[in-house]
TrEMBL record:
Matches recorded under PROSITE patterns: MFS
GO cellular component, one term: plasma membrane
Protein name: Putative MFS family arabinose efflux permease
Transmembrane segments: 24-47, 53-74, 86-107, 182-201, 226-253, 265-283, 295-315, 321-340, 352-374, 380-399
InterPro entries: MFS_dom, MFS_trans_sf, TM_effector
Record keywords, A-Z: Cell membrane, Membrane, Transmembrane, Transmembrane helix, Transport
Any Pfam family the entry gives: MFS_3
Domain Major facilitator superfamily (MFS) profile: 227-417
């Protein structure tokens, strides 16, 4: 059975005209909200138990570094298997992980290093979950020209959860406990499991050959395609620097702004608000070359926002900087994902997505670890200011390659011919 023909929907949400994508979208909306609630609760629990910025960095590193180490191989595995069935199994395992974390926390059996281990397990599962979800989106919409819009809407879900989830987490932490947040996250995975299980469609074509051959084919494509290589280097630079702010937010909330879990929720929510606005903007983009300006602008805005946030002690200005930072990081990351998936051959999509997630989250992990360690020496504010300066340097490099980048994208853009 093939995907139902799309009904005419407004251009900014045209991908929702596909019935399969609508089901996925609804389940994903609930699941992402729970994931953000758990992420905030985990960060607060670690800092409450230890008061250590360095351990915040270690915990974030453990949750994200599997994306760098396991992610590229996971992409080859994804392309060789039935993606829909595999996604259901991974979601079930994520549910078990969240339930175990809730039970251990409620019983008082958690320790800092147990939390690091649980974060590492989550990272391994996410190394498979992310490329599975992302590479299935093309199958859910069925039409290649609607894929960029579907990716933008999917990112909008992620960022709306990032906007709504942290304040909810802050309220739950104040009223209940971290264990309640983890248990709620476990329940939200059921929404995506039910949605994906209800979709009936042919399995996408599987890659042929050994795991080694499939992996090498993907690496060869990414390395020898100049456009892909430059976009991945941009991901590395952006997430090694700008995305590291997440690790230090509990430090700013408690020590710089003299706040509590609610303050942390509002800081995180402000960044999520900016990111949500960026995906509304990207959902209206229908030409790939126009994304180049957005990606470069997003990186520049991120650098300036890091400088402002790192050097201010006034909470209203810090919230505005967080919103700008969320917008900048998201518009660059999501724009790059749209370009990579729109130009990738269908048979390589799982591997291309895995390279994206490896650079996006793996170097986010390395950046968070580095930021946590630097903050113990320089302080949280000066650490972010330094990273802002480094990112500005990379933006200047991007500007020097802007014309070549736009020409390379134009050759792949089906709307340009």
């Amino acid at each position: 059975m093939t995907a139902a023909a799309p009904r005419p929907w407004p251009a900014p949400i045209r991908a929702l005209g596909h019935a399969h994508f609508r089901r996925y979208f609804a389940g994903q909306a609930v699941s992402i909200l729970g994931s953000w609630i758990q992420q905030v609760a985990m960060a607060w629990l670690v800092y409450r138990l230890t008061g250590s910025a360095a351990l915040l960095g270690v915990t974030a590193f453990a949750a994200l570094i599997p994306q760098l180490l396991v992610g590229p191989f996971a992409g080859a595995w994804v392309d060789k298997h039935d993606k829909r069935r595999a996604l259901l199994w991974v979601q079930a395992l994520l549910t078990v992980q969240a339930l175990a974390l809730a039970a251990l926390t409620w019983l008082g059996w958690v320790s800092p290093w147990l939390l690091v281990a649980m974060s590492g397990l989550l990272g391994v599962l996410n190394s498979f979950d992310t490329p599975l979800r992302q590479s299935l989106i093309g199958s859910f919409v069925g039409r290649r020209e609607d894929l960029p819009n579907a990716l933008a809407l999917n990112a909008m879900l992620f960022n709306s959860g990032r906007f709504i989830g942290p304040p909810i987490a802050g309220a739950l932490l104040a009223a209940l406990s971290e264990a309640a947040c983890f248990a709620l996250n476990a329940l939200t995975f059921l929404a995506l499991i039910i949605a994906v299980a209800s979709i009936r469609m042919p399995a996408p074509p599987k890659a042929q050959g050994s795991m080694g051959d499939v992996f090498r084919e993907g690496v060869s494509y990414a390395w020898h395609t100049w456009l892909v290589r430059l976009l991945i280097f941009t991901l590395i630079a952006l997430n090694l620097t700008a995305s590291a702010y997440v690790v230090l937010l509990p430090v700013f909330a408690r020590d710089v702004f003299a706040g509590d879990a609610r303050t942390l929720g509002w800081l995180w929510g402000a960044a999520g608000c900016g990111a949500f606005v960026s995906t509304l903007y990207l959902a209206t983009r229908q030409s790939m070359p126009g994304l180049v300006r957005s990606i470069i602008f997003g990186a520049a805005l991120s650098a300036l926002a890091l400088l402002v946030f790192g050097l201010t002690a006034w909470l209203p200005l810090a919230l505005a900087a967080m919103a700008a930072l969320g917008f900048g990081i998201s518009v660059s990351n999501v724009g790059i994902n749209m370009l990579l998936q729109s130009t990738a051959p269908d048979r390589l999509r799982g591997r291309v997505v895995s390279f994206f997630t490896s650079a996006r989250f793996g170097f986010d992990a390395l950046g968070g670890l580095l930021a946590g360690l630097l903050a113990t020496v320089l302080g949280a504010g000066w650490t972010l200011a330094l990273e802002g300066v480094l990112l500005l340097g990379f933006v200047l490099f991007l500007l020097s390659r802007r014309r070549a980048l736009r020409q390379a994208i134009d050759r792949h853009d089906p709307t340009a011919h």
